[in-house]
Amino acid sequence: MKHVINRMFLALVVMACSLGVSAQDDVKEKVVQAMRTGNSKDLAVHFIPNIDLTVKETAEVYSRAQAEQIIRKFFNDNPPVDLVIEHSGVSKLGDKYFIGILRTSTGYFRVTFFLKKTETVYQVKQLRIENSKNDF
Predict the structure, then answer these.
(1) Is 136 inside any structural domain?
(2) 37 in a structural domain
(3) What is the domain count for the chain?
(4) What whole-number distance in Å separates Cα of residue 113 and Cα of residue 83?
(5) pTM of the model
(6) Residues paired with residue 117 on neighbouring β-strands, in sequence order
(7) What is the spatial distance between Cα 135 and Cα 83, in angstroms, rounded to a whole number?
(8) Residue 76 belongs to what domain range?
């Protein structure tokens, strides 16, 4: 009987962990899709209330509303064509990060974003859109 209870507990732990990964992947895909389509509103939905945002040479902590406006202007000036995630990992703080190349009608940009678990959801705590050092 003890083995059955241990197996049931282990199954519940595995299910809970997989749900966390699934939720994280879902947010990652929504962020990527919003960036691919240049939808600043859909992107900002996933920001923490005060996000660390870098767009080209400007870096600052902005409110979600301010960050959405800055991203909207960036997308208007640089209409996105595609975003390809090339690398992902986990930071020392346990946040998941993703690095990719955003192809726009004006050129290529390196994109990095960090997902942080806040209460029960994952949110973007930092987003960087920087000039790419090379055009593929």
Answers:
(1) no
(2) yes
(3) 1
(4) 12
(5) 0.80
(6) 122
(7) 14
(8) 2-131
Nearest CA to 28 out of 98, 102, 121 is that of: 98
At residue 6, does pLDDT exceed 90? Answer: no
- 3-state helix/strand/coil string of 34-68: HHHHCCHHHHHCCEEEEEEEEECCEEEEEEHHHHH
- Residue 82 is part of a domain; what is its CATH number? 3.10.450.50
103/74 Cα distance (integer angstroms): 13
How far apart (Å, rounded) are the C-alpha atoms in residues 9 and 60? 45
Summarised one tens digit per residue, pLDDT across range 64-119 is 999 999 999 999 999 999 999 999 999 998 899 999 999 999 999 999 999 999 88
Between CA 28 and CA 29, with CA 48 as vertex, the angle to 5 degrees is: 10
What is the side-by-side order of every strand in the sheet holding 58-63? 58-63, 47-55, 121-131, 107-118, 96-104, 80-90
Cross-strand bridge partners of residue 62? 51
- Contact between 52 and 67 under an 8 Å Cβ cutoff? The reply is no
